[in-house]
Amino acid sequence: MRRLLRVPAARSGADLMTAELEFENWTCPLPLRDTPTVVMGHGGGGAMSGELVEHLFLPGYGTAGAVSELADCAVVGVGSARIAFSTDSFVVKPMFFPGGSIGDLAVNGTVNDLAMAGATPLYLSAAFILQEGTALADIARIAEAMGAAARAAGVRLVTGDTKVVDNGSGDGAYINTSGIGLVADGVDIGPRRATAGDAVLISGDIGVHGVAVLSCREGLQFGTTVASDTAPLHGLVAAMLATGVDCHVLRDPTRGGVAAALNEIARTARVGIELVERDLPIPPEVSDACNLLGLDPLQVANEGKLLAFVPAERTEEVLAAMHAHPHGAGARRIGTCVGEHPGMVVARTALGGTRVVSLPIGEQLPRIC
């Protein structure tokens, strides 16, 4: 769906080429989203997901609802300890894809949510909703993948649940994982801390997971095998924190991709973010697939990458630590946090122009995590 961008009128064509863009006066009309029923876009991590939380769940919860910023992980005090707590559900289709499965995805996804708060992950729960008729051999493969991923991440699966729904009421297996971890003293990481002047870093290639899942769905092929980047990132985060640099924000850009993550950070901190398009690490196969299907790579999900906001003068120290870790070998700076156009993300193009990187409304590729 195309979105029109209205810019304040200029006096001439020359004015359009030379005038400073007045971001605050731009308007971006959205299609109507009024609907009496749940639609796929409500689960996409974009604007519709945010509206569901803000206008339905939080009012329903009332005083029992969230009392802190709405992030993928909450940090709460328990006595003298600071506990990170997160939960996530996985409904990826198909259950097995190049580079992984719903099993390791479920473990790594919750481990990474804890890591983005600077926590050391410790324990996970695992709840299964299984569809009647699903092959037990497939469930065994998923369980083995979860066990292997948990051992690799150094966490333990300590509790869980299993339910079965009628044939046709599910899709093989859905998994919910919750996790807890410990946050060390002095660590304060969250989207509210993004500050004008911060460097924006990413740990590696963009859009790989989404394209990997798409490549084996509906028989689509792109001429090369693209494997998911699913991986636990807490070791990389530990290496970054070991530099002593005050990392302001960490975020794994899963549903909605880099675009959704950066827009959420910009709106929470009331800052602007400027990306340099030529510095975005988009692999050729991801770019080709997105061009073929009319997708924006910045809105495609990742499962083994992180975004980091760090003081600009400490950028090289953090990048050096990231490059020394296997999951950060491709790390680079992709932009800057600015005081202008608060709440908006823009990208400087190779031709010297500027485009708005918008928050996805729903999800380009449903059921990818």
Automatic annotation (TrEMBL):
Residues 196-341 form the PurM-like C-terminal domain. This is Hydrogenase expression/formation protein HypE. Belongs to the HypE family. It comes from Couchioplanes caeruleus subsp. caeruleus. It comes from the Bacteria. Residues 72-183 form the PurM-like N-terminal domain. GO terms for biological process: protein maturation. The lineage of its organism: Bacteria, Bacillati, Actinomycetota, Actinomycetes, Micromonosporales. PANTHER family: CARBAMOYL DEHYDRATASE HYPE, HYDROGENASE ISOENZYMES FORMATION PROTEIN HYPE.
